[in-house]
Amino acid sequence: MAGQLSIAGNLVILLAMLTRQGKLVNATSRHTPPMPEKFPKDLQPLLNDLDTPSLKLLLQSLYGLNPEVDSRITLGLKRHDHSEFAKLIKARLSSIKRSKKFIDYREGAAFADNLQTLADDIAAFGEYNPKLAFELFSAFMDSHPSVFNRADDSNGYVGDVFRSGVTTWIRLARGYRATPGCRLDWLATIEALHLDNGYGAWDSLICNSLGLLSEDELHTLSKRFERHLAKFLQSDANNNPTHRFNVQTIQFSTGLSAVAQALKNVSLYERAVLW
C-alpha cells in the first residue's frame, strides 16, 4: 500500500510539472519533489483523487504530443537513476550548444521558458546528488555564450534565465561544498568565472557569494584582484592614462568592487574605484 501511495504521489507531481514549462518552487521535503507555482487550483483536488492506474494512463496518453512534454516525462520518471538522469541532461545541453538555429525575438519567451525548465530540472536534482547537480548546472551556465550568439534577446528573457541562474549556481555550490570529499578550489573557480564574463551572465556572482565563501576567503580574493590591478598598471612603463581603462583593469576593479559589496566594506569599495 505504501509503495502504491509513493508511486501515485510521484505521478501526481510529474503531471503537475507538465502543466508548467517554467519555474518551480523549492522542494519542501526530501521525499516531496517541488510543485509548480501555476497548476490550476480547481484541478488540484481532481488530480489528487486520481488512482495510480489512471495516472499512468494519463501520462501514457500525453507522451508523444510534444518533444518538451516527452522530455519532462522522461526526466521525471528517471530522476532517481542518477546516471541516466545525467545522461539525459547532458544530451539536452549538448543539443542546445550544437544548435545553429537562430532564435528571433518572437521566439525568445518560449525558448527562455524551455531553458528555465531545464535549469529547474537540474536544480531540483540537487537534493539527491549535490555534486552531480552542481556539475550539470555549471555545464548549463557554460552554455550561455553559444545561446546568446544565436538569439535575438531584445526582450531580455533569455538573459534573465542565466542571470537568475547565478543564484541557483551558488545554492548548488554551497550544497556541493558541504559534502564530504569536495576538493574544488572555490576561490580559483569564482575568480575564473568573473574574469571570463564577456556576456555579463556572472555579474552578480561575487557580490552574492558570502556563504559559499567565508569572509576570510573573500578578503583573499580581494587581495588577488588588487595584486592583479597593481601589477598590470606597473607593467605600463609610461603609465599612460589612456591605458589605465581597458578590459583587464575593469575586470580587476569590478571584481574588487563586488567583494566590497559582498562584505559591505566601504574602504575596500573606495580602493576599487580610486585607483
Structure keywords:
single chain, 275 residues, mainly alpha, elongated, disordered N terminus
Characterise this structure.
The chain has 275 residues and is an all-alpha fold. It has 14 helices and no strands. It has helices at residues 2-18, 44-49, 52-62, 67-78, 82-98, 108-124, 130-142, 144-148, 157-177, 186-195, 215-234, 241-244, 247-263, 266-273. Helix 6 (108-124) packs antiparallel against helix 7 (130-142). The longest helix has 21 residues, at 157-177. The protein is elongated. Mean pLDDT is 84; it is low at 1-9 and 19-36.
Cα radius of gyration in angstroms: 22 Å
Shape designation: elongated
The main sheet comes to: none
pLDDT < 50 runs, ≥5 residues: 1-9, 19-36
Question: Which percent range fits the helix content?
Answer: 55-70%
- The overall average pLDDT, rounded, is 84
**Distance between the first and last residues' Cα:** 69 Å
Look at the helices and sheets and give the structural class: mainly alpha
Beta-strand percent range: under 5%
Element pattern in H and E: HHHHHHHHHHHHHH
